[in-house]
Amino acid sequence: TINATKPIYYAAVPSPDVAERIQVNIVPLTQQVERNKPFYAECRLSPRPSVPVDYTWYFQGRVFSRGERLSIRELNENTVGDYICQARFRPEGGSDVEMKATISLWFTPPSPDCCGDPQTYQLSINALTERPTRGSPFYADCRLQPQPSYPVRLTWYFKGRYHSEGQRLSIRELNEYTSGAYTCQATITPPTGTPVTVNVTKPIYYAAVPSPDVTGRIQVSIVPLTQQVEQGRPFYADCRITPLPNAPVDYTWYFQGRIFSRGERLSIPELSVNTIGDYMCEARFKPTSGSTVEAKATISLRYDSSPSDGRTAYWVSINPLTERPAR
After folding, report:
1. Which among 142, 145, 221, 146 has a CA at the least distance from the CA of 183?
2. How far apart are CA 284 and CA 291, in angstroms?
3. 3-class DSSP state for residue 3?
4. In a 3-state reduction of DSSP, which class is residue 18?
5. Ig-like domain: which residues (predicted)?
6. CA 198, CA 105: separation in Å to the nearest integer?
7. For 10, 112, 115, 118, which has the most beta carbons within 10 A of its beta carbon?
8. Domain boundaries, position 187
9. In sequence order, which residues have a C-beta less than 8 Å from that of residue 91 and are 6 or more positions away?
10. Which of 105, 133, 162 is the C-terminal boundary of a domain?
11. 40 and 67 share a domain?
């Protein structure tokens, strides 16, 4: 008996009512921020989704902690900087939704004529438009806490280029040319000493879904490369998407419910009782201005008793004949 399993799904995307109105914000919980003292903040989604949310905090390009709460035990030169909260969830019947927000923590150099501790400033971008929509305006405010008594200059940058001045960010029309990463830069000029610069960046996008021309015609299949499959010998196969998207594709192979390897090629060094079974290829990619597309295929490797040749491994795969699985 030879079995093969292939999950067949129609393409699902986040509901516009979910993806468009969700906003991620970082809320500081520590009112008095001081050197050598702890700092706490929370990453919050509003409105909160009805499904579980995975929160991950990043600092200096690495994972700092997981969970909604950011906890910094001690503020010092090694712990100040940009902290990014990544919130990820999957709506019912939809694809993964991923959102990010950044909070910047920096020390102000002490003034020569002041003996107090240097001040820590928090800079954040707060969206004023609840539902970013293509073709509509978008507004956000840049807020600095605490507010210093001396001059502060707020400057907006878009993709590294100058955009505008002032606390309010105004985007006349959200489209593929105006959506992306916006940075607010606060320049604080004390009466004496060196000006202090604090930056915060927030990605601003409208909700987009993959084109039906992309999701409807994508097929994933497993192509065995090993013609003679025998016990004690290696086995190779490729996971292929047709037509190949113009975006990078991440391939992940699973065996017995765990990650076996990454990449398009499946390589089994030796076929044995411990390495036969179901191997699933998961292919993920993100079309331009679209949501993540995920497709899977499974190949089953089983032994069959043969009086003449002993135990031999056979491969079997399922090739879909329906080009566009639809609900």
Report:
1. 142
2. 11
3. coil
4. helix
5. 16-104, 118-201, 212-300
6. 8
7. 118
8. 122-204
9. 14, 15, 18, 19, 49, 51, 97
10. 105
11. yes
Token look-up 């950011």 returns 70
Contact 299, 279 (CB under 8 A): yes
Q: Which long-range contacts (C-beta less than 8 Å, at least 24 apart) are formed by 220-227?
A: 220/281, 220/283, 220/295, 220/296, 220/297, 221/297, 221/317, 221/319, 221/320, 222/266, 222/279, 222/281, 222/297, 222/298, 222/299, 222/317, 224/299, 224/315, 224/317, 226/315
Ordered per-residue pLDDT tens for the chain, 327 residues: 445 544 444 433 444 455 556 778 888 887 666 778 888 989 988 778 889 999 999 998 899 999 999 999 988 878 888 889 999 988 887 788 888 888 888 765 444 444 333 577 888 999 898 888 888 899 999 999 888 888 888 999 988 788 999 999 999 988 878 888 899 999 888 877 778 888 888 888 775 444 555 555 778 888 888 876 678 889 899 999 888 887 889 999 998 878 899 999 999 998 888 888 888 898 888 877 677 788 888 888 865 444 344 544 455 555 554 444 544
How many domains does the chain fold into? 3
